[in-house]
Structures are given as C-alpha cells and as structure tokens.
Specification:
This protein has 237 residues and is α+β, with helices and mostly antiparallel strands. The strands form 2 sheets. The protein has a 6-stranded antiparallel β-sheet. β5 and β6 form a beta hairpin. α3 packs across α4 and α5 crosses α6. The longest helix has 25 residues. The protein is globular, with a radius of gyration of 19 Å.
C-alpha cells in the first residue's frame, strides 16, 4: 500500500525535481559517507567531484533546505533518511547501468563509471526495473559494489578485507575494487585483478609493496600500498 499523509508528502517534496547535479552530490555523499563510516567534509566532496569548495558549500545549502542532508556550520554533513533514500535510488540506477554496459555491451570496468554517470539521470523507474529484470537481478555491479534492490535494500555486501591486510601465502578472491579512477582500473584489469579473480599473496615488503600471483596470469604483480588498499578480497578459509 502506498504511503499517505504528511510524511509521504514531505518526502516527495524533498526529492521532487532533483537536478542531475543534485543527484551527483547525493550519490557521492552516500559513497563517501559509507567509506568513512561517518560525515562527509566539504574538502573531500570537492576533491571527489572536481569542483571548488565554495560550489560544494552552495550545494550543501540547497540540499539542507530540502531536508536531504544534516548540515551544521563548520562541520561535515551526513544524509538524512530522506536523503539516503534519494541517494540509494540514484546508486541503484548507476550500478545497474554499469552492469548492463559490461554484460551486454562489452565495456571494461574502467569505462563504465563515466557512461553510467551520464545515463543515470535519464532513466525512468520503469526502465530501471526492466534493466534489473533483464540482468537477472544482480546483487553487485562490475566493481563488486552492492546494488540496492527495488526496496532499496543492499543485497550484495559481504565481509572483505583490503589486500594490504592479507598475510603472505594466503589465497583469496577479489570481491571489490574500491576506486573509480579509470587509469587505476585499467592497470588492475590488465594485470587480471578484478572482481572474481583468484590470487595468492606472494610477498608483503616492509616498505609497503604487495606482490601477488594472479590465477591465469603469467608472472607476479607488485602493487604499491595505496593501490593494494583499493583491492578488497575474501580470504579462503
């Protein structure tokens, strides 16, 4: 049964007529909030979006006025319940489009983020559900990130650790790549390191280099610590 009454009206008002820029902000706030397990700073969001801090401040005011973020002077922001629901709808569209592009159009995972960012703002709820159906209701996107279901519940989250925290000689499966940077993703995919890949940690150097043997690939691959941190794995029991 559809929700009625003041609460439903307030939510519709808060999320009605969101611009593509507003949607971008909400999705990125959600992503950063989950990564940091807390509030999101002006500086972090500016870096993520490639915009100026005054631009972020102005948009924070707009989103706060709509009740989509909780904002206090000189403090990082956090999504409100309405803001999180709006963000999850955008995240769902984005990650379903990424999955569609890789599975049906042959895009590499290094290419899909920018394409999905352009398309996500123009997909109706009906088309979103059809994409989900055609794809077989996937739980995760090509990067291993969970896709919210039609009820905006996350189905594909699983326990994972960063590659830098895995001991030498340990076998594991890559479950997620924690970056959308195209150059970084291209490098990892060329090395065979992507969700679903099997690898063994061959060496962890004291200066932070992690060397892995990737199943099906010739030779070992050495990853500097900042890069290895972005590779999340499920360790074999």
């Amino acid at each position: 049964m559809a929700t009625t009454g003041p609460d439903a009206r307030d939510e519709r008002d808060a999320t009605a007529d969101l611009t593509p820029v507003m949607e971008d902000y909400l999705r990125q706030i959600y992503t950063l909030e989950r990564a940091a397990e807390g509030r999101v700073s002006n500086a972090d969001l500016a870096d993520r979006l490639g915009v100026s801090r005054p631009s972020v401040t102005s948009m924070f005011e707009v989103l706060a006025d709509r009740g989509l973020i909780d904002r206090e002077p000189y403090r990082p922001v956090v999504l409100t319940p309405d803001g999180e629901r709006a963000a999850l709808r955008i995240v769902r569209r984005h990650r379903l489009v990424e999955t569609l592009l890789t599975e049906h159009f042959g895009f590499a995972i290094s290419e899909v983020d920018a394409e999905a960012d352009a398309l996500e703002h123009h997909i109706s709820d009906r088309l979103c559900e059809e994409i989900d159906r055609v794809l077989g209701h996937p739980a995760v996107d090509p990067h291993g990130d969970p896709i919210p279901d039609a009820s905006l519940e996350l189905r594909g989250e699983s326990a994972a650790v960063s590659l830098v925290d895995v001991a030498e000689g340990t076998a594991a499966e890559v479950t997620r790549i924690g970056t959308q940077d195209e150059e970084t993703l291209s490098y990892l995919v060329a090395a065979g390191i992507e969700p679903g890949a099997r690898l063994t940690v061959a060496e962890v150097a004291p200066f932070g280099m992690v060397t892995v043997d990737v199943a099906g690939e010739e030779g070992a691959e050495s990853l500097p610590e900042p890069l290895a941190t972005q590779v999340l794995v499920r360790v074999d029991e």
